[in-house]
Write a structure and sequence with these properties.
This protein is of the alpha+beta class. The chain is 39% helix and 23% strand. It is built from 10 helices and 11 strands. The strands form 2 sheets. Strands 1, 2, 3, 4, 5, 6 and 11 form a 7-stranded mixed β-sheet that branches. It has a 4-stranded antiparallel β-sheet with strand order 8-9-7-10, sandwiched between helices. The protein is globular and about 60 Å long.
């Protein structure tokens, strides 16, 4: 039996959304994101007489494992029993599709052959990393990652330019409202396909690069939470503004925007929406500060579908035979 514990992924935003009429050679997508411990993924895979899968998002795990098994010669194929012990909800901005698919492929391969694939190999096997590679690389390494984007002549060629460990004492509060809008599938594809003003689009990319290189990365290196948080907030908002025509603002819906405004008003610097949302994140120096803010939010009348406090993820995948 193989057991794997994998992280979740926060995505602060893409560096560049490609559009028609822009200068040639610009790299596509990229971005900045952070791997976190909770709410993480834990699953076990073992040989069985018949295929089965149970637990949250079990259907996805089963599909990945069965597709992966078909890549082996017929005489090596075996049915598997998959138990997804824990997994966040899908399409809430935590990169569940990538992390669960890679963990399933990883466990299946280790069980069948004992081989350990690279993150890129797992991504190809699981069909992940179409735009951003943060979740792909972060599955193995953890930390905060800067993705330099794809070479348009080589789709899927994103380069991780930098990785920095998240301070051990810092915590991230993850909040999901009952009313949060979920973006995925055709809705997401249409948002990316919409034509944009190439001049304004390039100006946004330049701003995001400045915030990443001169704000987020040096502030994290110096463990300056206030400067880091302000840069993350500005980066996340600017990245979201590229989809204002689709969302009606920089965030996925009005209720998420109102929560972020409230969190900022309490004095929290590092606040934003992960990926398409509706998960909202807020960053703190320690767990006590995060718990105190959560109590304030509940006292102020906010009602959450989910509220989780997490540390950063530091490459601590577990593999048990």
């Amino acid at each position: 039996m193989i057991r794997i514990v994998a992280p979740s992924r926060l995505h602060f935003g893409l560096l560049h959304v490609p559009t028609v009429g822009e200068p040639p050679g610009l790299r596509h997508f990229g971005g900045v994101g952070l791997m976190i411990q909770q709410p993480g993924i834990a699953l076990t895979v073992d040989f069985a007489d018949v295929w089965s899968a149970s637990g949250p998002s079990a259907d996805r795990a089963l599909t990945v494992a069965q597709w992966f098994m078909e890549q082996y010669p017929l005489e090596q194929r075996r049915p598997l029993k998959i138990i997804v012990e824990s997994c966040p909800a899908e399409h809430v901005g935590l990169g569940v599709g990538t992390q669960l698919s890679m963990a399933t492929a990883d466990a299946t391969c280790r069980l069948l052959t004992g081989a350990v694939h690279t993150a890129d190999e797992l991504a190809k096997l699981a069909g992940r990393g179409e735009r951003s590679r943060i979740g792909v690389e972060g599955y193995r390494t953890g930390g905060l990652l800067l993705d330099g984007g794809q070479n348009p002549a080589r789709p899927g060629s994103s380069a991780i330019l930098h990785r920095t460990a998240f301070p051990d004492s810092w915590r991230v509060l993850l909040l999901q409202l009952h009313t949060g809008t979920r973006w995925h599938g055709d809705r997401e594809c249409h948002a990316f396909a919409r034509p944009r003003d190439p001049v304004a689009n390039l100006r946004t990319t330049e701003r995001l690069c400045r915030l990443a290189l001169l704000g987020i990365l040096p502030a994290l290196q110096e463990a300056d939470l206030t400067a880091f948080g302000e840069s993350v907030y500005e980066f996340n908002r600017a990245a979201g503004e590229a989809f204002t025509a689709d969302q009606g603002g920089p965030y996925c819906c009005e209720s998420v925007a109102e929560l972020i405004t409230w969190l900022r008003a309490t004095g929290v610097a590092g606040v934003g929406q992960s990926s398409w949302g509706p998960t909202v994140f807020a960053m703190f120096e320690n767990e006590a500060a995060a718990r105190n803010l959560l109590q304030q939010a509940c006292a102020a009348g906010w009602e959450f579908e989910s509220a989780v406090i997490s540390a950063g993820f530091h490459s601590s995948l577990e593999f048990n035979l």
